[in-house]
Specification:
134 residues, mainly beta, 10-stranded antiparallel β-sheet, 2 helices, 10 strands
């Protein structure tokens, strides 16, 4: 683990968000609002311990975890589900597997230069987002 995720990251690109949210069962009105947003991620990393805040003018979401330790994640404000989540390292990427009502659910973060990449998965849908370091 040599990568530093710390910082404030502003979204510059998003692909397939609507289909991803539809697969999660998020209602039409919320999906339309979410597609207009450019959220910001604030990441605090201390070794293997992470706090990730996703901030927008509509809703905020916070998740805190330690890599390698399973935890119960409450996706309140997103799709309002509880799932068992486990984040692991895959080289310099952090990969989360979320076990719950939906299959093949999770996400992967990685950094390339001053950009943070996020790939969110649920069932057969993948949403890809890119953030630029502030």
């Amino acid at each position: 683990m040599a990568v530093d995720y710390n910082g404030t990251w502003n979204m510059i690109k998003s692909e397939n968000l609507d289909s991803y949210m539809k697969t999660l069962g998020i209602d039409f009105a919320t999906r339309k609002i979410a597609n207009l947003l450019k959220p910001q991620k604030v990441i605090q990393q201390n070794g293997n311990h992470f706090t990730i805040q996703t901030l927008s003018t509509f809703r905020n979401y916070n998740v805190e975890f330690t890599v390698g330790e399973e935890f119960e994640e409450d996706t309140k404000g997103l799709d309002n589900r509880k799932c068992q989540s486990l984040v692991t390292w895959d080289n310099d990427r952090i990969v989360c597997v979320q076990r719950g009502e939906k299959s093949n659910r999770g996400w992967t973060h990685w950094v390339e230069g001053d950009e943070l990449f996020l790939e969110m998965r649920c069932e057969d849908q993948i949403c890809r987002q890119v953030y630029k370091k502030q």
